[in-house]
Structures are given as structure tokens and as C-alpha cells.
Protein: Biopolymer transport protein ExbD
Amino acid sequence: MKLNRIKRRNGNSLVLELTPLIDVVFLLLIFFLVATSFQDVKSGIKIDLPQSSIREMSDVNNIQVVVTKSKEYFITYREKGKTHRIKTSKRDLEKELREKLEKSQSKDVIISADKNLNHGTVVDVMTISKEAGAQTLDIDTSSEK
Structure:
């Protein structure tokens, strides 16, 4: 492809180079792909987490048990790069967790329970998780406001 030369007033010619322009476009494309915000896993379930001053974060790839204020139970997990959420009952929680933990490389379970639930409900979920095969249990909290 032949580029037309632009003549300047002083007689020198100017050539428009496309290579740096293409490089800049690709860099902008990469920047926007990296800076894209992804869907929040917790966006569909409304729970009010207790607050903690500890700022340590754990992996999102773990299996998460969510208990709402009205004692609805959900299991959130990642399979083949996609996040799945299933609703279950307290009675079926151990069976569902056992199935997910058998397929999981890490045997970690994160418990996200509404702060208004009584202590016994959270302990029941911890017990069920351990009986299902969880090696590590983490309690999800929100950071202080």
C-alpha cells in the first residue's frame, strides 16, 4: 500500500505512519479489558454481614455457603470458570456440599451468614460443612465503615 505524502510549505514531505497508531489502539484495548468490572458474586442475595476490622481476603474460588436473614440456604461455587449458585434446604445442605467438595481441589468453605441470625444457625452450618468434608472454614465479614 502506498501512502500519499503530505507536502509542507517549506518543501519537505511528511509521511503518516500507521504502526504507532495501531500500537496505541491495541494498548487501549488491553487497558479496557483489564479494567473491566465483573459481576459481583454476592449481588443476588441480600445479607447483612457482621463487621470486622481484619482486612484479610480469601480466594473467590472456594465454595461459599450463604444463609439469609429468613434462613434460606445457598451454595455458590465455580465450575469450569463459571460461577454457579444453587438454593438448597438445611436438610439437603450436607449432601450438596459433599458433592461440591468432592469435585473441588481446595476443601475450603466460606460461610456468609446474616448478622441477625442466631449463633446456633451459624454453628449448625459449620458442623454440616465439616461433616460434608470441609477442611477449612472461613466466616465472611464486611469491612468497617
Q: What stands out?
A: The CA atoms of residues 15 and 80 lie 50 Å apart.
